[in-house]
Amino acid sequence: MRDRTSHGFAGLGDLEDSAAHTLPPALWDYVQGGAAEETTLRENRRAFLRRTLRPRVLVDISEIDPTTTLLGSAVAAPFYVSPTAYHGAVHPDGEAGTARAASEAHVLAAFSTLSTASLEAIATAAPHGPRWFQLYLQPEFASSRRLIERAEKAGYAALVLTVDMPVVANRDRQSKAGFALLESPPLGNGPEIVGPARGFVPRGSTFTLRSETSSGWDVLDRIQSVTSMPLVVKGILTGEDARTAVEHGARAVVVSNHGGRQLDGAPASLDALPEVVAAVGDRAEVFFDGGVRRGADIVMALALGAKGVGIGRPILWALGVGGQAGVERVLSLLKHDLVTTMALTGRRRVSEIDASLMGTPHGG
Ligand SMILES: Cc1cc2nc3c(=O)[nH]c(=O)nc-3n(C[C@H](O)[C@H](O)[C@H](O)COP(=O)(O)O)c2cc1C
Asked: Each residue of 304-335: b (16+ CB within 10 Å) or e?
């Protein structure tokens, strides 16, 4: 019998199942669900399953080094905790537990505007980070500005502006499950903080949305005029937008379709990655998230040009099942799986993971 007792799951293979049996059904559907028919959500995984790696053999792999730097922060591995909302609804350890687990593992973690703990409490829980703050633009720029200033003061190393949610998508699974019950767990960053607009209001023959959430690219300039934290733009799927973000001073972009939760019909993130990498060149770092579950996925995203790879749902699964200890365990399992894949592909360092590692697709 395998040991599940200390963390609630034995390995990466049973984590999702364990979480499905642990979290209340409506919360589970909130975490798992995507937009509309969940085509993009499914494709995020399929994009990895289609691809193959070209391993090199008889390489001296007696020492494997998975360390790297992400926007100047030295980290133990090229993956990071993607920002996700409401950790406190998933487990009482909440964001503080996630932050401590990541920091102890020297893994970078990003925390959402919609955290259940305040951004200051998260910083206190894991003072050494490294930590990024994810911003959802507030209806008034003054409120966004206050959040930015608080994050800078609390020592966050970068500001991640999420741009793929001008309005929340229709999430059928979530609505069916009645996640509305959970729609307002207390928000740690203050009662005035609001999430992205939930829908349009009809006005005559058109539809209107709350004011400043529909800002244009100049919001990037405005943000940089009030902070010296490097700006990361999350939710980019085209070369055009990546180029524009960099022209407006973004130091990094995150290729992401929000884990299939926003535009259903958007490409799998992995399929969008090469276009963005080509557009950005060496002018900024390119990060990636969507569907990453194993070490081989991390290696594929790096081989296609990502500098860092974000993990969304698996962190929430592990937190739900085992609290802080669960997150510690999943980070350690992912690192081990990554190191094993590096060894099996003959790559000793992250810098050796390059395009020559990508093979022809299965059946291709
Ligand atoms: C339950 C849940 C909540 C999320 N909340 C946020 C959020 O508050 N801010 C944000 O930028 N992205 C959010 N995301 C998107 C993640 O940062 C990330 O893009 C996505 O989860 C990656 O896909 P994966 O879950 O397949 O790893 C959320 C994702 C999930 C599953």
From this structure: bbbbbbbbbbbbbbbbbbbbbbbbbbbbbbbb
